[in-house]
Amino acid sequence: MLILKKLTLAPLFLIAFALFVYQLIPLLKSYDLIFSLSINTFISLLILSFLISISCLLFVIFATLAQDLKIALPVSLISALIPMLFLEPALGLIFAVAIFISFLLTYLSLDVSLKSYLTFKPESILGPSIRHLSGLLILSFCLIYFLSTSKIIAQAGFQIPDSLIETALKMTPLDLATEQSSPAPQLPAISQEQIDLLKQNPELLRQSGLDPAILDTLNQPQSKAGSPQNLTQDLIKQTVKDQIQSFIKPYVNFVPAGLAILLFLTLQSLTSLINLLIYPLLWIIFYILEKTGFVKFETEQRPVRKMIV
Q1: 53 lies in a domain?
Q2: pLDDT tens across 96-106, in order?
Q3: Does a structural domain hold residue 235?
Q4: Any transmembrane segments, and where (predicted)?
Q5: Range of the domain at 153
Q6: 276 in a domain, yes or no?
């Protein structure tokens, strides 16, 4: 019965951790998501950071209630095997080893804290372990992301996503108001009879340096896709993209490491903000556990040795 009580939070932890690993899959398929500045990307990273924090919270509370390596070790091993179900064997094995080491180090550090505290304050005893574990999990995932991105770039090369170029151009203050407000230049209207006459005498156009094929485009409405403004924007986008690609080309081998560092800083920042809510949540959880009789606290009086001169 006591073992079942200590394993109460293990299923919740495994479910939360499985959701966390499942949420990682889209990030490993492409590097485009890192460059996206859309609200959907921010929400995805926020959900991922939330699952990291919840997984760390549940594991630390589970380890605190268990306080037994024989119980915590199998649960840690099962959680480490979860990535093998979603990732390819090589990446899954590396991720599994990194996760298992992270959980083991966290448990050993937490065990020292639980044996040396004087007054049980969950926010001060368990809070640092949650922060450290979240950092280790993010670091483990960034290692896998680095290996996955390196493989993708080695096979298909590195291309700046068009969405990033378009977003950058939209944020660039270009003075296009005059061009947008002024009407596009129009050719003088020519009647159909005049066009037919010119078609019968194409030499007249050639003498003027014109191609007779231009007659087929006269008096036809100009499509929006081929408007001068859109053509100019496409030309600017392609020019900027080519310049950036030329600049990055000598350093393409460092791109996976740069992307991994960028992802680490992003997830670490988001989890740090979310972990601010962990401290009051820890107090609430253990308050409920105490009131329901799930855990009990004892007050001890210990002799204190003081030096007097």
Answers
A1: yes
A2: 999 999 999 99
A3: no
A4: 7-25, 37-65, 77-110, 130-148, 251-270, 276-297
A5: 1-161+253-292
A6: yes
